Amino acid sequence: MQILKKTSVFLFILMLFFSCNKKDNDEFHKELLLENVRLIDGNGGAPLENVNILIKNGKIAQIGKQLISEKATRIDMKGKTIIPALISAHSHIGTLKGNTISGENYTEENILSQLKKYQDYGVLNIMSMGTDRPVLFKSGLRERSAKGEIEGARIHSAGYGFGVFDGAPPLEFAMDRVYRPIYPYQVAEQMDSLKKVNPEMIKIWVDDFSGKYKNKMEPEIYRVIINEAHKQGLRVAAHVYYLEDLKQLIAEGVDVIGHSIRSEVIDDATLAQMKAKNIVYIPTLSLDEFAYIYAKKPEWINDEFFKRSLEVDVYEMITSEKYQTELKNSPLFETNIKAFETARQNLKKVFDAGIMVAMGTDSGATPLRAQGFSEHLELQLMTEAGLTPLQAISTATKNSAKALKIDKYFGTLEPGKVADFIILDANPAENIKNTRKIFAVYKAGKEVSKGPFKSQEE
User: Fold this and answer.
1) What is the value of pTM for the model shown?
2) Which CATH fold topology does 86-403 show?
3) DSSP for 33-98?
């Protein structure tokens, strides 16, 4: 029986926002004509050279070679490349501050600061995956974000996820708001409680964190979670590591795989089932590289684009001899390297099988996973796994918008869509690292950032 999808609160607000001109803001409503630009529209095709883009009321009105508007402010973009703003289908926000993860960090001020950071890096929609706290919902931040009343990325939320008593996710990572049912009959009441904050997705953790926990969520528990979520018109995203868990989750009707399978290479029969059931796959390759890479001194370790994304004191921590020695001596060091290589193989297999791949990074879950930089690193890692730059960009724009059910408004640059985009000084189709050469970030047709460098200098 087909599950009826309910329109999320976020989408409802957006429809009202763009259909009713409530915001009497001359800056928002003026016309803008960007001329002579190279356009990568997010659909996966070759870049369009020397096109003009007309923007009205925060949305793209026309794209073409010969566009004229007497009302528009005209800007010559010759030599620049425009791509859609990035969308992260798996992030975390608010609990990270400095080199700590804590519920005490989860304040409106900290959330706003991090949303602004994402914006500076050209990430304008994020899904906070199951670790939010009451402050977000009581403050109305999500609704204000959707209406464009606050700066920064628009925040989507999976509310409070479902984990395991005396198991994943780790309590020390500010996961004390997560539901942890011991018996299946507890799930319905917990789902009703969760529904009060209008989650846009349901998050579950099915993992033992490399043997750290003896208990892992049992199928009889997540079966009920998935069924109850589907009754509410909500999809379920699973944190998963092992192939055997993936197979069982597919059988139970999971909708989104929130991380790579890292235990072994996925077999073709399982890939076929994933495709048949329209499962979305979010590889979070950067998460797996961050688990060991600082001990290897990556080529970007001293890059200002990376350093400016870090919280205070984190750079000193990750470059210290003490930290790097402990990392190298960790019993999981070689395991983590192998897991990353398996994740890369699985991404290519999943992509080639025609399964939808969306971009997510788990940024903000720990100090190691820098918000903003992680999303650009993820694009690089996707290309190193075998995707082309244009394919990687589409996963982070068009596919991520589809994964979050916001593709009516976001994800591609075409008439009728919201004018969210990044203007780059170089062509990322030639080198994916050129996404880091940010000239400007536009949100709903208005310039909101010059990138992380100039934003922090102002």
Assistant:
1) 0.93
2) TIM Barrel (3.20.20)
3) EEEEEEE--SSSSPPEEEEEEEEETTEEEEEESS---SSSEEEE-TT-EEEEPEEEEEE--SSEET
